[in-house]
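Ex. 9. Protein: GIY-YIG nuclease family protein.
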Amino acid sequence: MDKQRRRDIAREYKERKVPVGIFSLRCEPTGEAWIGMSRNLDGAANSALMSLRLGSHRNATLQAAWKAHGQAAFVYAVVEGLEEDLTPIGREDWLKARLRHWIAALEARPIVA
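Predicted structure tokens for GIY-YIG nuclease family protein:
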């Protein structure tokens, strides 16, 4: 691969649109749900599931449910994605408002305790 092609790939990676939004982790056997927000939904899935697998998630009730029921009992889902471009402050305000909305609507707990 030549240098120009490498530069093009690096530029495309930096310019990609990172998905922003609200996600959930649901324990199927109990019906419990935890809702979180993220500026990078792909990273949020990876981070949450990895910390649960390692037994080091900061939400004790979520970690306890994971330990009791196992990975197969949990479903990760994107609940809502941000489609429009907002300023960083606008994005944070949107995330916080939508997090509150989905916690109430789904009778869920926040992932961050």
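Check your answer against this statement. The beta strands are 21-27, 33-38, 74-81, 109-110.
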